[in-house]
């Protein structure tokens, strides 16, 4: 069935809400096909009544007969093309309801009463994301196939060892996410990675951005190291979470083996992240130490220049005083004894001033020596 970008399939059992929503979407240029409930004839009735495949589905949860969760599963399995977004609307807002919606294939979830402006913005956002995914699908599938073909010829434990070696060559979260996705492809599973380091970042192996999935990851991070719900397994670490979206829950033995191997693989990621953070911290300390060293070096140089200038000024002042005193005493007609007494007092004052000045220089040299020691430690 051909798909038209503007065609929306809509399930809502309240006629008034359906009319308002349809009117708002049609005003945005969409073609809306509304159903009050899931047809008794099933998917065949949808195919007969829709001239084209929809680009988006809006689903109320509490519908008469078949509920929205079941409808979503049927549509995903039997009717919709790959990655066509599904938006749930419901008055149910418990964590279990949101996780259920995500598990059956929903892309987003709006709590009723839904504001029409918010609804139209969500619809436009989901369609933009779908268009971007469609454009990137061919390139991404090719890259993932190459990664899978390269890894499937080796034993899984060997893949883990090579993965750990590869982590030492990367230092950014996008590079780590790409390595994780390549490793998961070797195990035949699909994954999502969420990092909570200096900045929060979210990566999915198919390039999608699913807000409901991100919300589920935030909920799961408080539920222990490994949290499993149906085919979803969340592996939680201090700085990141990896979600495996398609664990083989029907094969108990394989399921247990994969959980153990993923723990081993992700322990390597955890160790690498700790090393990256330590490297960043050391780099920051080195930058701070370098800045402090430059400041201290400048201060030491300034003190040295200031001391030299002050010594010269002091010596010149003493010389000027002695010269002026000798010259001026002649004009005072002092007795020799009086003149000698005055000169003695002036010399004593000069000596005391010199002593104070020398003490000041000594203290300054001590400060300079302390700063030089600190500078040497920072430089070392």
TrEMBL record:
User: Which keywords belong to this entry?
Assistant: DNA-binding, Phosphoprotein, Transcription, Transcription regulation, Two-component regulatory system
> Pfam families under this entry?
Response_reg
> What name is this protein filed under?
Response regulatory domain-containing protein
What InterPro entries does this protein's entry cite?
A: CheY-like_superfamily, Sig_transdc_resp-reg_receiver, WalR-like
The answer on whether this UniProt entry bears the keyword Ion transport reads no
SUPFAM superfamilies, A to Z:
CheY-like
What sequence ranges are listed for the domain Response regulatory?
A: 7-127
SMART domains registered for this protein in UniProt: REC
